[in-house]
Amino acid sequence: MIPRSRATGRAVAYQVFYRLPLPLRRRLVRLAVPKYIVGAVTLVRDAEAEGAGRLLLLRQPPGKGWTLPAGLLQRGETPVVGAARELFEESGIRLSPRQLTPAVPNAVVHAKGWVDVVFTAEVPASTTELKVDGAEVFEAAWHPLDDLPRLTWPTARLLGYYGIGPLAGQFPPPVPDTTQ
């Protein structure tokens, strides 16, 4: 139970806060709450693969490990639109945002203010042409899930949340949605 004097102080503080002009309230909230960098990531699987399946990975500078199609959101951009844009820019695969499915968990909050919003998609590798620019991405290739190449640390960690790769099983499983 909150002491009465403390509860009264909070009530007064909220009354004062909500009487302030909206721009000032927004500025105060921005000063007080944590800031996050938000990225969009797409786990693209080969729709034709058998067995464990195959995953699209990219080799980006400096080229010491493989990554997922991903990037930072642009100002005002929704995560699913950013994921579709980054997928096209980095691999040449053009999918509409409606073709991307939110992964479970859909957002992974990392230490130091980084959030990845993750989506999944399936495309047939045999008919999907991969195009890279040679600057931002050196190479795009399909890799068997049970024999992944050397991954960058952030990629290995992110995939671990989805039970994939060398860190699979080292993170708590997602909490099931019981509201449906």
Instruction: Give the proportion of residues in helices.
Output: 25-40%
The N- and C-terminal alpha carbons lie at a distance of: 33 Å
Our Rg estimate from Cα atoms comes to 21 Å
Identify low-pLDDT runs. Answer: none
Mean pLDDT: 90
- Largest sheet at a glance? 4 strands, mixed
Strand content: 25-35%
Give me the number of helical elements.
Answer: 4
What structural class do you assign from the helix and strand content? alpha+beta
Biggest sheet strand line-up: 4-1-6-5
What is the ordering of alpha helices and beta strands? HHEEEEHEEEH
- Total strands: the figure is 7
Shape: elongated
SSE topology:
Blueprint (H helix, E strand, L loop, with lengths): L3 H16 L2 H11 L4 E10 L7 E6 L6 E2 L2 E3 L6 H13 L9 E10 L3 E10 L15 E6 L8 H8 L20
Parallel strand pairs: 1-6
Antiparallel strand pairs: 1-4, 2-3, 2-7, 5-6
Relevant terms:
single chain, 180 residues, three-stranded antiparallel sheet, 26% strand, 4 helices, four-stranded mixed sheet, alpha+beta
